[in-house]
Design goal:
With about 425 residues, the protein is of the alpha+beta class. The chain folds into three domains: about 5-215, P-loop containing nucleotide triphosphate hydrolases (Rossmann fold, 3-Layer(aba) Sandwich), CATH 3.40.50.300; about 220-300, Translation factors (Elongation Factor Tu (Ef-tu), domain 3); about 310-415, Elongation Factor Tu (Ef-tu), domain 3 (Beta Barrel). Helix content is about 15%, strand content about 35%. The chain is built from seven helices and 23 strands. The protein has helices at about 15-25, 30-45, 60-65, 95-100, 120-130, 150-165, 200-205; strands at about 5-10, 70-75, 80-85, 105-115, 135-140, 170-175, 220, 225, 240-245, 255-260, 260-270, 275, 285-290, 300, 310-320, 325-330, 330-335, 340-355, 360, 365, 370-385, 395-400, 405-415. The strands form four sheets. Strands 7, 8, 9, 10, 11, 12, 13 and 14 form an eight-stranded antiparallel sheet that branches. The chain has a six-stranded mixed sheet with strand order 2-3-1-4-5-6, with helices on both faces.
């Protein structure tokens, strides 16, 4: 079975946590003690129903306020597929948490309240999902039970959101009317909405094709660790461990090591289960080469005729995540790109993006917490980069405050000049 990662998004109280709870409950993915704990808390609050949102809202502050603050990860599986869910917050002050949860997602699940329609947060999260390169967006029009399962309400929201999506880079957009509280169209088809002939949410997620979303053309293997056993019987062993970022690697393939530019041939590909005939993302493997090359952590293996851009000047969109200081021209940070560390200086802040209106403020001089903007960075040593829209692994990076060691920004590389 393959793995699908999806992240929930949407405004406060649109029912994201309840939807995930319903998905876990109806798909029989809960342990009895988990369900008993949720039922007990629900009764203590005086609810005459089981509040399934409590399955994902784990922090005490979340349960007290009835909101999601942190990103909650949940795992479950059906006979068709395994899933990792990232339940992200809806509040604007937790935009950075939404970015964290959606950064590795295959699908963004955007919830809309059928009574409220599209809100600023709905637009914000749709923009962020496309900015983060999430290939599939599923819009769940929730709380249909509160509008008497009216088809016209669903149609109006679908048309309005579809018009907004034309301004974004949306590759695949699907609309499903649901009631997370009642379970309509989440796992089982709703008897109250016979006018909807599409799949249920779980059925859509089970059948969604995501294998072609991964870059299997451009070989990129960032070296994380060099393995040199000290035993006398394996003295000549030199393995390069890491996670395949993109492409397919096979024994016998010709590769080039960056930044040295030296070439060799893959001898073997090792995993914890033994040698394999090929490696593809996101497999963690150890590669041995036919020749002994000077390769260390932060270097990259790729194809001789298909190499990333080697650059020290980066054009990127960044989401600022630090509440104590802002990003401004001239400030310096540590930068981590794949397995490579360097130092970076902000050369220019081109503009700050208003994610609600998509307006570009070119007069902005800084980025504060949760703000997004386009910057020009100068890096102290070359990085091996691709545009983020082509390769999410080699097109992304983080900025780290060297004084506090806090991650202060997540970045996505835009234009690349080779």
């Amino acid at each position: 079975m393959d793995l699908l990662r999806f992240a929930t998004a949407g405004s406060v109280d649109d029912g994201k946590s309840t939807l995930i709870g319903r998905l876990l409950f109806d798909s029989k993915a809960l342990f009895s003690d988990q369900l008993e704990a949720v039922e007990r808390v629900s009764r203590s609050r005086g609810n005459d129903y089981t509040d399934l949102a409590l399955l994902t809202d784990g922090l005490r502050a979340e349960r007290e306020q009835g909101i999601t603050i942190d990103v909650a990860y949940r795992y479950f599986a059906t006979p068709r597929r395994k899933f990792i869910i990232a339940d992200t917050p809806g509040h604007i002050q937790y935009t950075r948490n939404m970015v964290t949860g959606a950064s590795t997602a295959d699908v963004a699940l955007i919830l809309l309240d059928a009574r409220k329609g599209i809100t600023e947060q709905s637009r914000r999260h749709a923009f962020l999902a496309t900015l983060l390169g999430v290939p599939h967006i599923v819009v769940c029009v929730n709380k249909m039970d509160l509008v008497d399962y009216d088809e016209s309400v669903f149609d109006v929201i679908r048309d309005e959101f579809g018009a907004f999506a034309t301004r974004l880079r949306v590759r695949d957009l699907t609309f499903i009317p649901v009631s997370a509280l009642k379970g309509d169209n989440v796992v089982t088809r709703s008897e109250h909405m016979p006018w909807f002939d599409g799949p249920t949410l779980l059925s859509h997620l089970e059948r969604l094709h995501v294998a072609s979303d991964r870059n299997l053309v451009d070989v990129r293997f960032p070296v994380q660790y060099v393995i040199r056993p000290q035993q006398h019987d394996v003295l000549d062993y030199r393995g390069y461990a890491g996670t395949v970022a993109s492409g397919v690697l096979k024994p016998g393939d010709r590769v080039v090591a960056l930044p040295s530019g030296l070439e060799s041939t893959i001898a073997k590909i090792h995993t914890s289960d033994g040698d394999v005939a090929e490696a593809f993302p996101p497999m963690a493997v150890t590669i041995t080469l036919a020749d002994e090359l000077d390769i260390s952590r932060g270097d990259m293996l790729c194809r001789p005729h298909n190499m990333p851009t080697v650059a020290q000047d980066l054009d990127a969109m960044v989401c600022w995540m630090d509440e104590t200081a802002s990003l401004a021209k001239g400030r310096k940070y540590a930068i981590k790109h794949t397995t490579r560390w360097a130092r970076a200086m902000v050369r220019e802040l081109d503009y700050r993006m208003d994610v609600n209106t998509l307006h570009r403020d070119e007069q902005a001089t800084e980025l504060a917490l949760n703000e997004i903007g386009r910057v020009q960075l100068r890096v102290t040593q070359p990085l091996f980069i691709d545009p983020y829209q082509e390769n999410r692994q080699t097109g992304s990076f983080i900025l780290v405050d060297e004084g506090t060691n806090r991650t202060v920004a997540a970045g996505m590389i835009g234009r690349v000049q080779g």
